[in-house]
Design goal:
This protein is mainly alpha-helical. The protein has 2 helices and no strands.
Amino acid sequence: MPKFTPKPNDSDDNVNRLKKTISNMEAAEAAMEFAEGKELAAIKEKNERRKESIEGLQEEIRAENKSRINGYL
């Protein structure tokens, strides 16, 4: 099994990741019009995970902004 080396957390990248995730979710929602069956279910499941990711990124961005205001970053 290959070793998993996580990427370092770059807080400057969070806003870009958030925008990209939202864009991907919107594109997937548009694609749902043309999807059926398993494909439609897969898109819905992936968008649910994207929603969770968006919430997490938003919380992380808020926490980082608060840290900056308080002088920690």
